[in-house]
Design goal:
The protein is of the alpha+beta class. The protein has seven helices and 20 strands.
Length: 287
């Protein structure tokens, strides 16, 4: 089993987890390759992760951010992501750090479910037909104003039909997985990840008439800034992005390749909402 390993090297306990993984790998039949930042923990003879195309899975030691980074690294690969939570929330991750040693043998034997999650793809276009690089997001694509004080005036088009214009600080286009991230903070709905769809949520809209809405997964969302400052920022999963220049528009659509997340227990999406985010007000928290 060919496993790529990435991690957030600033988290406490990362070295011990990587050391355990390296020690158990031969007996479990795991062929490991590590990103360079983890080599001090993995040992001088550890293989370096160069290409994710031929991986059977990827291990992500960190939090939700590290899992999102793993999903981007996989590109169009269908390899599942096993996220080990070393942070606080870990809403997307597979298990806690203290559970990893017990679950690793089961993972190596293939005793897990790969939960499929719809991803998004964003790309800028201009009037001359030039297009930018395609950016893949598991959570969301956000168009925002950056550090300047002016609000944005945006024209929205959905699958070729002009929806209208809005004035706001920005707009979040999210997958169902991302509906519990920035979109939720901006007032968007929670969407069960098994319901493939695209959520569009304005950020601090300057009108009561503009509300979040849910679109079918096949929709293509086009966002065109009007009378914008020199540059508008586009952020993907809160980690990477690009700039939208004058006369450029942003197109967001479903990615052809979903992301698969390893699940090894019976906790449901709603169970994680209750446990991780306190949805509905847990009795033990209310008391």
């Amino acid at each position: 089993m060919r496993i790529g390993v990435i991690g957030h090297f600033r988290h406490d306990g990362l070295g011990a987890l990587v050391g355990h993984l390296v020690a158990q790998a031969p007996a479990l039949g795991l062929d490991l390759a590590f990103e360079r930042e983890l080599l001090p923990f993995a040992g001088r003879d550890a293989a370096v992760l160069h290409d994710t195309a031929h991986l059977d899975a990827i291990l992500a030691f960190g939090g939700d951010g590290t899992l999102l980074r793993a999903a981007r690294l996989l590109g169009h690969s269908s390899a599942p992501v096993f996220g080990v939570n070393l942070g606080k929330l870990g809403f997307l991750t597979t298990c806690r750090a203290q559970d990893f040693a017990g679950l690793l043998p089961r993972f190596a034997r293939g005793e897990f479910v790969a939960e499929q999650r719809m991803a998004l793809e964003a790309q800028w276009h201009d009037a001359l037909g030039t297009a930018g690089a395609r950016l893949r997001a598991l959570n969301d694509v956000v168009l925002h104003k950056g550090g300047f004080a002016r609000v944005l005036r945006l024209t929205l088009t959905v699958s070729g039909e002009r929806l209208g214009s809005m004035t706001a600080d920005g707009i979040v286009v999210s997958s169902p997985t991302g509906s519990t991230a920035y979109s939720l903070s901006a007032g968007g709905p929670i969407v069960d990840p098994s319901l493939e769809s695209i959520v569009v949520t304005p950020v601090a809209a300057h009108t009561l008439a503009m509300r979040p809405f849910v679109l079918p997964a096949e929709a293509v969302i086009e966002v065109q800034p009007e009378d914008a400052p020199e540059e508008v920022l586009v952020t993907v999963d809160g980690q990477v992005g690009t700039k939208l220049g004058p006369n450029q528009r942003l197109l967001v659509r479903r990615s052809p390749q979903p992301v698969r997340i390893v699940r090894m227990d019976d906790t449901t999406f709603f169970g994680r909402l209750r446990e991780k985010m306190g949805w509905g007000g847990l009795v033990e928290r209310d008391g």
